[in-house]
Structure formats: C-alpha cells, structure tokens
Amino acid sequence: MTRDKIKSEIIRIFSEQFEIDNPGLDDDLRQVHEFDSIDAIELLREIEILLGSELTRAEKKNAMEIRTINQILDYIEGLAQSRAGGETKTRPA
Amino acid sequence: MERRVVITAGSAITPIGHSKDEIIRHLEEGISGVQKMKKDDLLSGYIHSGVFGTVDYPIAYDFKRRYRKTMGPVSYYACQVAKEVLEASGLDTEFITSGRLGVAFGSTHGSPSVQREIYKSFFSGSRASFSSIGAVDYLKSMVHTTAVNITKMFGITGRVFSSSTACTTSSQSIGFGYEMIRFGRQDAMLCGGADEYDTTTVAVFDNLLACSTDYNDTPHLTPRPFDRQRDGLVVGEGAGALLLEEYEFAKKRGADILGEIIGFSCTNNGGDLILPNPDGITATIRQALKDAAISADAVDFVSAHATATKMGDTIEAQATGRVYADGPVVTGLKSYMGHTMGSCGAIETLISLYMMEKGFIAPTLNLDEVDERCAMINHARHLLEADIRIAAIQNFAFGGVNTCLIIKKP
Fold it and tell me: B136, A91: Cβ pair inside 8 Å?
C-alpha cells in the first residue's frame, strides 16, 4: 500500500469515524481536534482492519506518542514493512 | 444535620410525550402511548407480547461528537433530560462543576443494543479476529453509562451513584439523592433513570408469563392496571430526570420550587426475587410515612407501581389498602405508557408534580371494571379536579426491592 493510499484511507477514517474533516497533516490532533485516548484506541482497531492483521501490544504502545496524521502514516508504513518482512501476526478469520 | 430538599426542575422523555404540555394532554385526554412492537432482527418474532410503550417522535439531539462517542441510545435519553433539567434550573456552570452537585442516575442494564453488537463481534463477522470490542463499547454499554455520560457532558464533579435495580432504579436515584442532600453530603443532585428500546427486556418478562398478550391488535387497551381483564405488563422506553436542591439554597437563588421531598423509604422483601410481598410493600409505605412524619390520612394521592400483572396489582392494592384504606386517590400511570423500567420512578414522580401544579388527577387508563381483589383502594376512574398537597410514589422491582417517595406541594 502506497503512502498516498494509506493517507486517503486515514483521511476517510478520520472523517467517517471521528468527524474530523481535512485535518492538517501536522496538526496536533489532541490540541486541534480533541482527538483523545479513546479515539486513539479506536484508530488502532481501524489500522488493524486496514492492514488485515492484529497489532502486538508493543506495536500498540508505540502508537501512544503519535500526535499527527504524518506520524500515523509513518507508523502504518512501518507496520506494513515489518509485515512484508515476514513479521506479521495474522490470525485466521 | 438534616436539611429540607426541594425539586426545582424536571424533564421526561416518555411514550406519551416529551414536553410537559404534551404529557399533560395525553393524561387529560386519556391517550395511550402503547403501540404495536416494532420488528427487530432479534427477538420480536419469538415474543408472545406484541406491544411496547414506544417513544415514536423525533428528539432534536445536539450533542457534540466528543460526548456522543461514549453514548449508547440509553445515554442519549439520559443526557437529553439531564440537559433540559440543568437548563431549566438556571444553575450556572460554576455551581454545576463545583462538586456541590452530584448525579444519581441509572438504567436497568446499560445499553443492551450496544451489548448486542459486542456479542455479534464475538460470534460472527470478519472483525472478530481483531480487537473485537471497540474502545468505547464498554463505556457505551456499562451499567453506569447514563450517570457518567451526564457527568462528562456537564463537568459535574460531585458524588456519582448509579442504581441498577430494574423498576426501582430511578426511584432509588431520587430517594438516595434526597438523602445525600438531606444529610449534607451534597447541595444538589441530578437524579433519574433511563431505558432504551429493547426486546430482550420484553423477552425476560414474556418468559415469566408476565407480559400482556391479549391486546396485541389493540395496543391502546393495555396495560390495564387493577382491571379484571388485565393480562400483564407492557415494557416501554423513556427517561426522567429531576433536579433536587437543598431548600435554603434553592430559595436564596430564587429557584422555581416544584415540590418538596419529605420522605423516602427503601426496603427489601428479604426472600423471593420475583413474587411481590404484601408485608414488604406495607412496611415500605409505612416507613416512608414515618420518615415524612405524617399520618396516612395526610396523603391525597398515590401513584401506584401497578404494572398490570395479576398478582402484582393485587398485592399492591392490598398493601396500599392496609395503610390507607380507601383514603387517597390511586392511579396507575403505567396504563398510559407501559412500564418504562429504570425510568418509571422519575417519570411517575414528575407526572405527580405536574398534576399537583395543575390541580388534577389522571384516571387509570383501561380500568373498566375493577378487579374485586383490588377494590379496597380509592381508584381514579375519571379525570378529577384535585388539590394534591401530598403524594406518594410507589415502585417495586425484581429482587424484592421496594421504594416509596413522599412529595409535598410547595
């Protein structure tokens, strides 16, 4: 999945799930858009669906410092690469 | 320290209306809010009862997403009536967030529709392999979801109590809220209860043969409290909220005083969890009168729990008759809207306040022929002009929980 494709999916999720339209890529989501810890957990679930695989606890904890859309994109790209490298933890449906 | 406690605002979402005028119109014109049960994809096809006390009008919710994200349908009801009560009260934000205001608000079992979605994710669907329970699903569905969504929305920092005792949920909320103010723990309490549309609740009563089934094609003719042809309760939905304040505080700020709570009792039958208990109910009523320091003949009106079950109404009538004989006028308000479960105590208290203010007593709807086993009390058979100075609101729940509130005209 390209970064642009990931970005369009994240923008869609933010609009549909969090009612945050067209956030700036470097906006502090908490300060500018009231994106809180509950939203962050919800977003992780959406990322699992997007990637088609479950995140490990360590991966989830790593996400807790994320503040911007750009950081989310970096995070997802990193996850995608690690899975492409054979580190995926996919459960059978 | 014992302080006087007054009610200074109220609001309800009921099957017979949302506004005070609409609710009073239904009462005065004898219009029922019971309708045919909506079809759902769960239990409606299996339940014998085909009626429901339905909220069928649109409600203009205006909640921002930061609040909505933790709210299930039951919290929408709860937060809406809470919002209306706080707006009507005139209390400012400084007081609301000061810690002097607490919340006593509950529901029968949180949000069953959200709980259903959680179970769906476990037992079916592609999402079951990931983090199946959303971060907010528990917050939306938990038993105290109504109370804490209210505290969150309005920044309330005082005590929080969330009763979940089925049909006595909101009468307990009011009663325990009253005691918190009376004994100086809080200066004001936002009290009430809510329950959303839910067929699992109907199924529970249906399985116990407690639901009305004979009037599925004529919903407005059921429930029929105290009537010979009654055949059980009708489950409903709704919400009710009251603002309670310490009397001197309310007086000083010029609040509109709707009524004073002068007594409350809450007991348990100490035995069977389903069967009503005449001794338990009798003791509850007597304790409430003692708490209010009044005699039985001071009570002008009794709002009976009166769900329209064969045994429940009979036992309540007999217990009420033991205490009051045929003194106060008795109405079963569930005849208009069905049994709104966790919200019924608050709704029935608010309607009693409306009737106090307007000087009338609504009759028990569908009471065409009083069951002789219920004939020892003074039933309201017609719309009455009446000066209600003191009213008693009786509620009883599964688990053997009994409550009685005594309220006085200001």
Answer: no
Name chain B contacts of A19, Cβ cutoff 8 Å. Answer: 65
Q: Which CATH superfamily is domain A3-84 in?
A: ACP-like (1.10.1200.10)
For A19, name the nearest residue in chain B, comparing CA atoms only: B65
Q: Cα–Cα distance between B16 and B26 in angstroms, integer? A: 6
Instruction: Out of A18, A44, A91, name the one closest to residue B129 (CB).
Output: A91
Contact call for residues B267 and B173 (beta carbons, < 8 A): no
When CB atoms are compared, the residue of B70, B126, B131 closest to A93 is B126
Interchain CB distance below 8 Å, B135 and A45: yes
Residue B131 and residue A54: Cβ atoms within 8 Å?
yes
**Owner of token pair 């939306």:** B140
| Angstrom distance (rounded) from CA B54 to CA B23 | 14
Nearest-CA neighbor of A73 among A31, A14, A20? Answer: A14
* Distance between CA atoms of residues A32 and A10, nearest Å: 17
Residues of A in contact with B69 (CB under 8 A): 38-39
The residue of chain A with its CA nearest to that of B132 is A45
Q: Minimal Cα–Cα distance from A3 to chain B, Å? A: 23
The domain total for chain B is: 1
Instruction: Give me the residue spans of the domains in chain A.
Output: 3-84
For B158, list phi and psi in degrees, rounded to 5.
Answer: -80, -160
What's B386's domain CATH number?
3.40.47.10
Nearest CA of chain A to the CA of B123: how many Å?
A: 12
Test A38 with B139 for CB contact under 8 angstroms: yes
pLDDT tens-place values along chain B, 410 residues long: 799 999 999 999 999 999 999 999 999 999 999 999 998 878 888 999 999 999 999 999 999 999 999 999 999 999 999 999 999 999 999 999 999 999 999 999 999 999 988 887 777 665 555 555 677 889 999 999 999 999 999 999 999 999 999 999 999 999 999 999 999 999 999 999 999 998 989 999 999 999 999 999 999 999 999 999 999 999 999 999 999 999 999 999 999 999 999 999 999 999 999 999 999 999 999 999 999 999 999 999 999 999 999 999 999 999 999 999 999 999 999 999 999 999 999 999 999 999 999 999 999 999 999 999 999 999 999 999 999 999 999 999 999 999 999 999 99
H or E stretch at A13: helix A3-18
With CA atoms as reference, the chain B residue closest to A20 would be: B65
Instruction: Determine the structural domain holding residue B237 and report its residue range.
Output: 5-408
Reported ipTM: 0.74
Which residues of B fall within a CB distance of 8 Å from A91?
A: 129
CB-CB neighbours of B177 under 10 Å = 31
Is A93 in contact with B131 (Cβ distance < 8 A)? no
